[in-house]
Amino acid sequence: MNNYIIKEMTEEYAKKICNWKYKKEYDVYNLTEHKVTLEVRTFNKRAIKCYLDFGFEIKDKFIKDTFDGKDEFYYMEY
């Protein structure tokens, strides 16, 4: 497996990524080795429902500083 580290996203690099081809079935559903985590604002009911339907679980609720003040978030894991 290749590990790619993006140090700076340039337009040229973005175009290169958009042209990548993956010939096998996508493995996003087979992430047994890694946790996928999200921080979602608690008022974003539609996104939360979508993530729950997909199989994410709410693990924690916390307050976080944002660019426009403090807000409440859910920490979700898959």
Estimated structural class: alpha+beta
Give start-end ranges of low-pLDDT stretches.
none
Structure summary, number of beta strands:
3
Strand content: 25-35%
Q: Helix count, per DSSP? A: 2
Order of helices and strands: HEHEE
Strand order of the largest sheet: 1-3-2
Helix percent band = 10-25%
Question: What is the mean predicted local confidence, pLDDT?
Answer: 81
Q: What does the radius of gyration come to? A: 17 Å
What's the multimeric state?
Answer: single chain
* Main sheet characteristics: 3 strands, antiparallel
Shape: extended
Spatial gap, N to C terminus = 22 Å
Keywords:
3-stranded antiparallel beta sheet
Provide a descriptive summary of the structure in words:
With 78 residues, the protein is an alpha+beta fold. Strand 2 and strand 3 form a beta hairpin. Strands 1-3-2 form a 3-stranded antiparallel beta sheet, covered by helices on one side. The chain has helices at 11-18, 45-54, and strands at 37-41, 57-66, 69-77.
Structure, briefly:
The protein has a domain at 34-78. Helix content is 23%, strand content 31%. The chain contains two helices and three strands, in the order αβαββ.
Task: Note the topology.
Elements: H1 11-18, E1 37-41, H2 45-54, E2 57-66, E3 69-77
Antiparallel strand pairs: 1-3, 2-3
